[in-house]
Design goal:
Layout (H helix, E strand, L loop, with lengths): L1 E6 L6 H12 L2 E4 H10 L3 H11 L6 H13 L6 E5 L5 H13 L6 E6 L2 H15 L6 H15 L1 H9 L2 E5 L4 H13 L1
Parallel strand pairs: 1-3, 1-4, 2-3, 4-5
Helix pairs in contact: 1-9, 2-3, 6-7
Amino acid sequence: MLNVIIFGPPGSGKGTQSEKIIAKFGLAHISTGDILRAEIKAESKLGKEAAQFINRGELVPDATIIGMLENKLNGLTDAKGVIFDGFPRTVAQAEALKEMLQKRGEDISVMLNLEVNREELISRLLKRGETSGRSDDNLETIEKRIKVYEEQTSPVIGFYKTEGTYKGIKGVGTIDEIFDRISNAIEE
């Protein structure tokens, strides 16, 4: 199976590029953001708990995310592979994902890191906030999310470099230019 992680800071284009990867390579999409938003919308116990962390610009605890992810993976029986969007966000999550996949006789094929500078990220997220109405796309929360990413999430890059599956992708340019870079990295 082709197991791809799409990675990068908030606003780097993970969601947009995930859709294109899914269409081209026939992968199932696992977005922790989508799973969390669905739980929040349903006002489940898990959703209410997660909303408190998200509204403060903090990461949802590993145990919560990993449990939801395992449930989702167990429901995918005929997929050609999976794209993980927004997961893992910590080294502990990367280790848990590796363990989960190894139990299935699988591993991560490639970890794609969308590289975008801070000013571009802020600009993209502010525009998205104007059009999508996402409450977490305001300057104060954006700054905090980027800081959390830099401090807590970026160490995951080192994990996948050590694993030998890391690919840095220039995340600026047109959507199609970025996607061409991604396709080449997956096909290598």
